[in-house]
Amino acid sequence: MAWGRRYRSIFEWFDEVFRSIEEEIAALERELMELVRSGRAEVRGPYIYGFRIVIGPDGKPIIEEFGNIKRRYGRTEILEEREPLVDVFEDEDKITVIAELPGVDKDKIKVRIKDNKLIIRASNGQKYYKEVELPAKVKPETAKARYKNGVLEVVIEKEKPKKVVEEIEEGHEVKVE
């Protein structure tokens, strides 16, 4: 679905997006029911699937999925770990990540920063797992995490880029004759 080519308005685009999502959910339901009827799957729960639509920095809509139902390699998988809904906010000097982790005790949450990704893992009855690609380089040692009422907030300072002038001045100076 390329925005702007065949749509007269954003409302037509949203209408098609929602129609395609409804079709995908119906296909998932049919596939799940067939697996249960055939005995190849057992009914366990909860099954969680959701999505949100955000406008990206380039002005184009982005559809983000969350939950524990994933489509991989042409098949539907129900994962043990649920993917929480996450928001990432970038300020001039810091990045803030907000994740919904309802029903988890604070001491059951593990947060790591590795290769410019924030990794969230939690387990307290319901299991959560999410890798968040950070939009800028960060200083992992400055990260602070706070959890209250089912919401995890992680704030990390951004790495300050060296200015071109500083990089030039750091090298060995050669006298011009």
Automatic annotation (TrEMBL):
GO terms for biological process: response to heat. Residues 76-177 form the SHSP domain. Keywords: Stress response. Residues 81-169 form the CS domain. It comes from the Archaea. PROSITE patterns: CS, SHSP. Belongs to the small heat shock protein (HSP20) family. This is Heat shock protein Hsp20.
